[in-house]
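Input sequence (329 aa), recorded before submission:
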Amino acid sequence: MPNCCTTPENGNLFIIFFNSTCEDMKTFRRKPLRKASSKAQSAMEYLMTYGWAILIISVVLAALFQLGVFNPMTFAPKAPPGACQVFRPNGPYTTSFINLEGMCSGMLPQYVAQFNPSSSPYITINVPNLPLGASQRTATVWFYVTGLPSSSQYAEYLYGYGVEYSYNAFQPYINNGGYVEINAWYTDQVVAQINTGSWCFLAYQYDGQAQIGSLGCGGGPLTTVASSRTYNTQPSPLIIGAAASGGNIDARYMNGYIANLQIYNTSLSANEIQALYLEGIGGAPIDLRHLVGWWPLNGNANDYSGNGNNGQIHNVNFVSNWYSGYTPP
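Predicted structure, token format:
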């Protein structure tokens, strides 16, 4: 049985083994206990030194993302005011040789109209040839709701004309539950619920027998409803961003953004409505012969239908940072 003894030397531990004949002796040196990994220590020092910087950068990037800096729409080309318009060589409301002129490829608008209800915003337009009585019509518009109306206000209106309290106005609105409703003769009809925080497209039609509403939000498919109605719309100015009652302004103002309002004196087909939707928020009119008015609201309230129905602006702003929440169809 080998004998064993240990002796310290210079702080190191030596183990000496002796065999039974003591003829051979071997010395083995035990390695010191290993310290913590130097790489792990360096990583901890790095985190302690730069952790706050990384946190601040993360917060800044998140804020920039919320502001839309990283939205691809930010860098998409924008159409300036009046970039596309209808040319009528024979004058307003004529239909011979009419055509579109300018940049009419569906570019995003540079501006949209912003409505803040605290400042009582609206646009008034005298349009002599608006569809009245029980005549056919179509109106399409893009909108974005910043906040829903209160329970006492009940509704915020996109546009309209007629005399509301005589039950014959032609005007869509958003109720305090977030649903779009269309109405005439005060027989309201729900179209669909909007996606808050998304741009939406609304087509509102009357074909002589039924009212039809089609709504698409956030780039999703259109939802369409229809119901039999008898219209008898009376003449009045067109109001954008507030309720219309014979040209008088009702304090149920839009809270958000509106763009690209088009009005036709015919009921467009389902395929035409779908085509207008797919053109996106910067889309040009699709049926020039029946176009009554076209207000892109791209920096102004001018009518680019060639019919000269320019609007008067009351406390409406035109903003360029509108594209947060916009998804092309």
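Checked by second reader. The radius of gyration is 35 Å.
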